[in-house]
Design a protein that fits this description.
Length: 536
């Protein structure tokens, strides 16, 4: 009997009855296929036809199936209405959407379908216009982007997902294989569990699509402040072994892997990813050949030089003990000499924009060490800092502020010398990436002591001196940076006792005069930046 005759019989096995609900399989009799990504679609359609499933389709998909010899009916044949407005309107018709949305265990729905000569659509295979690929191309205009905003596709996907008890929806070509296997197993039917999973995936798909469009439009308004509504939609790129600790589950979402490509070694851990991010952001502060060593999200050494090997040796000398098991990041192609020096101690991860010939062969001898290539300059990345809190998120602009010499204010009687000024600028770039309270002692091309994450700024100053002393480094005549103002003169005096002769800090304390007097009394040159770099 034909479909309309079957509709008169609610017990027909189109869908489950209300009594049996999820337990009953959904037998597929009619499918709508409309895809932008045509991977595997001909093969899927041929399988559907083997089960006697009628196929209707649109535009380019209809032509592709027809060319492949698949029996297919056009949407216009079903609706009795042509595609119009350059294809903007083709599936937006009751003959399509009533077929998708009908609850075929509902007698009233069946009656109305019969009255209007509409047949149910049991399977919807749809993926959307390639908006993401369109806006990723250089020089894409707003008009071009708008034409790649799908309307009919998301409407069908949402309708089918809503009606998943009676309609199967597939948005991902990677699902075609499992779908055909299930059809074969169940003689052309699909289980409720599969329908539910596919519906969940479909809603995620449309949410991601809409978020992408909203983000694109927001990005066109460069002067827009933080959004009133935050829409975040990122695909899972990796399931991680665990989070910060083994009892915590974790995953990586978004496009981190487009910036950093793993060339060798074990899978990256949650903590590895945090440290890679921290090391790369700090390394990007410097133009000269620079090496950064990070441990637990804090730098334990930073060095610059005319050559990368000199830079690495200076970074390592700051704290050879903490460097063990750390993350090394460099901003030049990793050469053989520097790779050999890094290879002398255990290093968890190495990050470089590229690797010279033969270097990977050397470094890959240690099986578990992760070797990462930074394939995109992160200085061009636009991003917010996002943190989860109970019940919500904290969102802020990424701290991309860079101080210039012209932005410094000398507040003491003595001005810094040229060498001191270079050291102050170096110290300030590092302090920006050290957990607060941060105190950093440096020369013009290397760190000497780093005090991080203490509740007291005085304690940070003491710890930095202690670390320098343990490393056998001389602090006499060095520069010191404080990420925020000295609330009292005691922190500054601690730095002076350590050997600092020049200081860079934001200023802004009600006791700035006290700190300035203390600096003058000890013939210390001090500059204010007028900006702080807290990092919690």
């Amino acid at each position: 009997m034909d479909t309309l005759t079957q509709l008169k019989t609610p017990a027909a096995n189109h869908t489950s009855t209300r009594e049996t609900k999820e337990e009953v399989l959904l037998h597929i009799r009619r499918a709508l296929i409309s895809v932008s990504d045509k991977r595997g679609i001909v093969e899927l359609a041929k399988v559907l036809r083997q089960f006697g499933i009628e196929i209707i389709s649109t535009g380019g998909t209809h032509q592709a199936l027809k060319d492949a010899g698949v029996a297919v009916k056009s949407v216009s044949e079903v609706t009795g209405f042509p595609e119009i407005l350059d294809g903007r309107v083709k599936t937006l018709h009751p003959a399509i959407h009533a077929g998708i949305l009908a609850a075929t265990d509902n007698p009233l729905h069946l009656k109305q379908l019969h009255e209007h000569h509409i047949e149910p659509i049991d399977l919807v295979v749809v993926n959307l216009y390639p908006f993401e690929q369109t806006i990723a191309r250089e020089n894409t205009t707003l008009e071009e982007a708008i034409e790649h905003i799908d309307v009919g596709g998301p409407t069908m996907v949402r309708a089918a997902a809503k009606n998943h008890r009676h309609t199967v929806v597939v948005v991902n070509p990677d699902r075609y294989q499992s779908l055909t296997e299930e059809l074969a197993k169940n003689n052309g039917a699909v289980s409720f569990q599969t329908r539910f999973e596919l519906a969940r995936e479909a809603f995620q798909h449309t949410a991601t699509y809409d978020t992408m469009i909203a983000s694109y439009f927001s990005g066109l308004q460069s002067d827009t402040a933080l959004p009133d509504v935050v829409t975040l939609s990122m695909k899972k790129s990796d399931t991680l072994r665990y989070g910060e600790n083994p009892h915590q589950s974790a995953a990586l979402y978004g496009k981190f892997n487009t910036y950093f490509k793993k060339l060798h070694g074990k899978e990256l851990s949650y903590n590895n990813i945090l440290d890679i991010n921290a090391a790369a952001l700090l390394c990007a502060e410097f133009e000269k050949p620079t090496a950064v060593i990070v441990k637990h999200n804090n730098p334990c050494g930073v060095g610059s030089g005319e050559t990368l090997i000199d830079a690495y040796k200076r970074a390592l000398a700051t704290d050879t003990k903490s460097a063990f098991g750390g993350i090394v990041c460099v901003n030049r192609s990793l050469d053989a000499a520097t790779a050999g020096a890094i290879n002398e101690i255990f290093t968890e991860v190495i990050v470089a924009p590229s690797y010279a010939d033969g270097v990977l062969d050397l470094l890959m001898k240690k099986r578990d060490r992760r070797l990462i290539q930074q394939v995109i300059d992160i200085r061009s990345a636009k991003a917010f800092d996002v943190r989860g809190v109970i019940g919500g998120l904290l969102l802020q602009d990424h701290d991309q502020h860079r101080i210039s010499r012209e932005g410094l204010s000398v507040v003491t009687k003595r001005k810094p010398t040229e060498e001191e000024l270079e050291a102050l600028m170096f110290a300030w770039r590092v302090a920006k990436h050290v957990k607060s309270n941060a105190i950093v002692y440096t020369r013009k091309d290397r760190t000497l002591g780093i005090g991080a994450g203490q509740m007291s700024r005085v304690d940070s100053a003491k710890i930095a001196v202690m670390k320098a002393t343990e490393a056998g480094l001389d602090l006499a005549g060095c520069a010191v940076a404080s990420d925020a103002f000295f609330p009292f003169a005691d922190g500054l005096l601690e730095a002076v006792r350590g050997g600092a002769t020049s200081v860079i800090q934001p200023g802004g304390s009600v006791r700035d005069d006290e700190a300035i007097r203390a600096a003058d009394e000890h013939n210390v040159a001090m500059v204010f930046t007028g900006i702080r770099h807290f990092r919690h």
